[in-house]
Amino acid sequence: MIDRRTGYRFALGRLMMIVLLCFALLPVLWSIVLTFRPKISLFTPIWEAPLAWSLDNFGALARSDFPAALINSLITAGGATILALIVGIPAGFALAKGGLRGTFQTSWALLLLRMAPPIGIVLPLFLTYLNLGLLNTRVGLTFAYMSLTLPFVVWSMWTSFSQIPSELIEAAAIDGATLPQILWKIVLPLSRPGVVAAAILGFLLAWNDFFFALILTRGQTATAPVAIMNFVSYASVEWGAIALATIVLTLPIVPVIMFANRYIVQSLGGAVKG
Amino acid sequence: MQHHATATGLGPATSLSGTATLRRQKQREYLRFIYPTIFLVGLFSFLPLVGMLALSLTDYHLINGWGGTWGLQNFARLVLDARFLNSIYVMLALSIGGVAVQLLVGTAIAVGLDQIVPRWKIARGFFTIPFAVPHVAVALVWLSLFTPTLSPINAALDAVGLPQPTWFSSQTGAISAIVIADTWANFPFVMLLILAALQGVPRDLKEAAAIDGASQLRTFFVITLPLLKPALLLVTLFRFIETLKHFPLIYVMTKGGPGRSTQATNYYAYVQSFENSNVSYGAAISVTLFIFAGFASFWVARINSRINS
């Protein structure tokens, strides 16, 4: 390409990128600052007391409900993802390669479930769980999360399996392989990126959820996003602990997302690259 | 989807009816792969949605229970409910404002990363960080940045003698605050999808335009942007629907205030259901949101099937 990377326009473009990068990083850097600021200097500008720092928030967070809530999050989001993968992968395979009718209606239904207002699902679940004694249980929340993860996994696996040439499957069928064998030994190894992306994004749907957990759990069974709100009360807000909790929730996800970037892009919209 | 018709391995010489039978047998085998999903999605997604619809036709109250009447009274009440109409206005303001800003920021970053600073590999990583932050945390961190006594932005403005913004005392301010936090959390989604679409733009097209003497800016608007249209349309629809479902940002940052000025419809449904215990009315509000989702998902499904065929 002809090099036009000179001149004021290009400089302007770079400036724009720097400004946008500052916008993206400001809350991140600010959380790090908040984490290490002692309570008494929270409301003093950093440049007036640059050396005031402490590790108090680590102790405060460790003593709070947050670690237990983190485990609840892992169990429910993880459980919902594993369940969705086990059930959703074969379904995605059948939709992509089964030559079935009603694929348009199915894709509409899956999208509708993704777009439906969560309160429309949570409200009836709440009333049902209330009667079945599933309210405030991890099992109840896991199955509720499955209503987020399963349609998503089916949709993304459908997309990635569609890219596998049908000839491969036909050839294996001629050789006498059964459908489960074809899926397990041929199709799945070829779509590993798709499975990884579906697993990660499906997990994040549940991991990042606030609404379901707010309605369906309380106290002992609350997930991490709900437990963060315990640091907010009418009397005071524990900004340091909140910032640290945010970092704890985000830090493990950042490398995963950076690693899986490519795969995620392919399955995010599911449709952009067909 | 019909390319499987010849998957029987018997070749074109087989009689038509034999192929059809085998195909149906094959389909039945594939269908068995779907049953567990149909069962679970039915039980935990569709059944609750039907429950929501049924609930909206009753007068069920969380504490008082069911008064015994059926009918459309909740929907009749909706039409006259000023708070509901206000909530739709707020919802649309948050959605349209949010989607417009996110689209602009996300596309600018994607195009910038692709064409202005392609060597900033680390920056690409930095730009995806917000994607990993749960929305409650996003809301809390931005709340701290919008709290005048705490915010480093306010402190900096104060230090140089500039006026400080107050975010949560007016509707415009509060809506802007939510839009900014929402943009921060979601521009990576736009960015990632547009980046993927940009990689699909053939390089020789751009080079041909450059040889013809078109400026880089002109090349972008005339060649690149039209090719990004399907991606932009899908991103817009997905983001629009997501912004209709705003909850954590409102719950944490404004609680619907000041007054009711940020009480969007989804949040209003929550308030009616769980603060006023008026679950049947909350369900009716959700039904209206569900109708929105029905239209939008149909549209996306249409676009999607057109792209794939």
Automatic annotation (TrEMBL), chain A:
Q: Is-annotated flag, keyword Transmembrane helix?
A: yes
Give the highest taxon in the source lineage. Bacteria
Q: Where does this one sit in the cell?
A: Cell membrane
Coiled coil where?
A: none
Database matches in CDD domains: TM_PBP2
Print the keywords alphabetically.
Answer: Cell membrane, Membrane, Transmembrane, Transmembrane helix, Transport
- Where are the membrane-spanning stretches? 12-33, 74-96, 108-127, 139-158, 195-217, 237-260
Membrane topology, from the record: Multi-pass membrane protein
InterPro entries cross-referenced by the UniProt entry: BP-dep_ABC_trans_perm (IPR050901), MetI-like (IPR000515), MetI-like_sf (IPR035906)
Where in this chain does the record put each ABC transmembrane type-1 domain?
70-260
Asked if the Swiss-Prot or TrEMBL record annotates the protein with the keyword Lipid metabolism, the reply is: no
The UniProt family comment states: Belongs to the binding-protein-dependent transport system permease family.
Q: Identify this protein by name.
A: Carbohydrate ABC transporter permease
UniProtKB/TrEMBL annotation, chain B:
Report the residue ranges that make up the ABC transmembrane type-1 domain in this protein.
Answer: 88-300
Which InterPro entries does this chain map to?
Answer: ABC_transporter_permease, MetI-like, MetI-like_sf
Q: Where in the cell is it found?
A: Cell membrane
Among the Pfam families in the record, one is BPD_transp_1
Q: How does it sit in the membrane?
A: Multi-pass membrane protein
Q: Which residues cross the membrane?
A: 33-57, 88-113, 125-145, 174-198, 219-241, 279-301
- UniProt KW keywords: Cell membrane, Membrane, Transmembrane, Transmembrane helix, Transport
Family assignment?
A: Belongs to the binding-protein-dependent transport system permease family.
Recorded hits in PANTHER family, A to Z, give: ABC TRANSPORTER PERMEASE PROTEIN, INNER MEMBRANE ABC TRANSPORTER PERMEASE PROTEIN YCJO
- What is this protein's record name? Sugar ABC transporter permease
